[in-house]
Amino acid sequence: MSLTAPAPLAARVASLRRARSRGRCRIAALIGGLLAVGITLTLSVGHSVTPPLDVVRALTGGDVPGAGFSVRELRLPRAVLATLAGMSFGLGGVVFQTLLRNPLASPDIIGISSGASAAAVVAIVLLGWTGAAVSVAAVLAGLAVALLIYLLAWRDRVSGARLILIGIGISAMLESIIAWVLSRAPAWTLQEALRWLTGSVNGATVDQALPVLLSLGLFGGLLLGLRREIGAMRLSDDTAAALGVPLLRDKALVILAAVGLIAVATAVTGPIAFVAFLSGPVAARVTGPGRAPLGTAALIGALLVLIGDFVGQHLLPARYPVGVVTGAIGAPYLLYLIVRANRQGGHA
Amino acid sequence: MTAPTLQALGLRAGYGATPILKDLTLALPPGGISAIVGANACGKSTLLRCLSRLLRPERGQVVLDGRSVRDMPTRDLARRLGLLPQAPIAPDGITVADLVSHGRHPHQGLLSRWTRADDAAVADALAATRTAELAERAVDELSGGQRQRVWIAMALAQETDILLLDEPTTFLDIAHQVEVLDLLVDLNRGRGTTVVMVLHDLNLAARYADHLIALRDGQIRAAGTPAEVLTEEIVQQVFGLSCVVIEDPTSGRPMMLPRGRHRMTQAHRAPGRDPEPDGTPP
Ligand SMILES: Nc1ncnc2c1ncn2[C@@H]1O[C@H](COP(=O)(O)OP(=O)(O)OP(=O)(O)O)[C@@H](O)[C@H]1O
Ligand SMILES: [Mg+2]
After folding, report:
1. Transmembrane ranges (chain A) (predicted)?
2. Could you tell me the distance, in angstroms and rounded to a whole number, from the CA of residue B15 to the centre of ligand 1?
């Protein structure tokens, strides 16, 4: 038996690989196109509908009577924040799901989002903090919850199913803390309360979008640099380590980056329900198996938030924040996964 | 290139209070084929995990070419030493070609791109394991034997000087077992790869390995050539099994035939313990 393959086989391997990477690019381009449509919709539709040409003129600084202000000051920050937060949730979520090899292990299911959200609410409502301090508190709380779940789930080694159950319990406790804090702040409107319970991009400003952009650059960049390692971590830990992945360090970095993404976005928009949870599986469905769909999940996350927000603002009888809409989409999927996990004896 | 030397010096390792490996010292013959044999739970996988630095020993060290593996960068080590774990996990729906491509991981830096050499290494691995025609299939749709060959292909694509394999022939029918072991000999002769494998089939181990290591209860009971290790006495001590060792007429290597309580001829029955051939109690 020969140990060297005939040249045509190498060519076939190469062409298979190229075909797949072309396929991935096509899908990314397609979702990117949909994203552009979503952004355009958000920019054009408000109390009144602004034609696309006027939107472009307003964005490039032209004077558009009646629409210039709302396009530049209201709709643009909203579109930007929705896109950036959606990308953060999508990317942070898929990283957790990939690392723990379980779609239920998403940060919004296992309490990391609620940890960040609870910290943000306490910081804003009880301590009167604003800006970067709130983001930092949210990131620290997210990390603390991640660590707590890990320690509670640790017995010989971390079992995925136990970790998820513990996470769901912690999440429920944190939600009740959020509700309690909100109830002590009578000046808050229902809209504000909903932001911290389900997430919202109402009243977005450019200042709010900035920390999310920075976190996406920093943590997203880190994850991009580690994407091959994340790919190898989908195999068993032993296999990944044997392939030369410094597991301890890289896992810590990846979790830090994912928690950072989720927490910073949550500190601004609240925990937009189920975006982190849904993006990864949707991305895996559209790209097909093969790689961890990091970039695609980020794009899907942005799309979910943009479309969810548009639906909540314009297509329902009353105005709802985006989290109510994404929650309505995500809850049935969560039920489906839990039912399936029960049938399979605890393994989703 | 001179063959790499891999040694374990005074290893003590385990997963909790009681160590699984107890002061284990061994040297693997450079450029050779070694087989580790022993009863279930005696520590074979634990030994491989220590050798490949997946498990940090409490005491002692693993030395590769005179250097402790603890001091080597992870990626450098992975370019020299590959491991096929006993129960690897394939991500849902991943294709054979994608899985085998993971073997190239240690050869790629942060910035370096996938090269023609990477494609060639993947193709070589697919061809050697006869999995080329499966390249586009999903790994989780394959039979156990096909899947095993795909995992071996991934380890081959890593192109390491030393290859550790934990039970590479489980799930395989006898023909495929022989094929995999022949492939490992090809690899050993063709590329000079040092092969270390855990095997449960003592006869195949004796036939294919130049060096046998018999492990009992986390310690080396015997190590040496198959003729030195595969003896009635050592099999009795390591497995608690009585057997007859004869010469394998096809290879000239030793071969063992287990003695059971049933179905033994008069000459091989333990008098006073085993039932008569017709089933009547002793
Ligand atoms: N991750 C782990 N955590 C705790 N104990 C473990 C772990 N892995 C193995 N053990 C224990 O260590 C002992 C040796 O296990 P090991 O896997 O090395 O055995 P083995 O010789 O490879 O057995 P087999 O032939 O069944 O594969 C066993 O008692 C096992 O229960
Ligand atoms: Mg084992």
Report:
1. 27-49, 79-100, 109-129, 135-154, 161-182, 209-226, 253-278, 290-308, 320-339
2. 9
Helix (H) or strand (E) holding B164: strand B162-166
- State the amino acid at position A115 in one-letter form: G
Q: How many domains does chain B have?
A: 2
Both tokens assigned to A140: 């620290």
Neighbouring C-beta atoms of residue A345, cutoff 10 Å: 7
Distance of CA B219 to the CA centre of its chain: 17
Facing residues of B59 across strands?
B12
Angle between the N-to-C axes of helices B116-128 and B174-191, in degrees from 0 to 180, rounded to the nearest 10: 140
Q: Is B54 in the pocket of ligand 1 (CB under 6 A)?
A: no
Q: Does A337 touch chain B (CB under 8 A)?
A: no
Compute chain A's Rg from CA coordinates.
Answer: 21
DSSP labels for B196-264? EEE-S-HHHHHHH-SEEEEEETTEEEEEE-HHHHS-HHHHHHHH---EEEEE-TTTSSEEEEE--SSS-
On whether residue B270 sits in a domain, the answer given is: no
What are A286's two structure tokens?
Answer: 């559209």
- A33–chain B Cβ distance below 8 A for any pair: no
- 8 Å CB contact between B135 and B126: yes
Q: Please check whether residues B171 and B66 belong to one and the same domain.
A: yes
Domains, in order of start, for chain A = 39-46+72-343 (1.10.3470.10)
ipTM: 0.90
